[in-house]
Specification:
Elements: H1 3-32
Length: 44
């Protein structure tokens, strides 16, 4: 009966988690470029 709200709720939650994960990865990559090579713990 209210399946539209269930689908919308799941879409909002999973969409929000995906956006948050993308933002964390983007910020992490930007910050990792600021660390000098001799201070990096893990190298590619």
């Amino acid at each position: 009966m209210y399946w539209e709200f269930v689908i919308a709720g799941y879409a909002i939650v999973f969409g929000g988690v995906a956006l948050y994960a993308a933002n964390v990865l983007r910020q992490g990559r930007a910050l990792s470029k600021k660390v000098p090579p001799e201070r990096r713990r893990f190298l590619d």
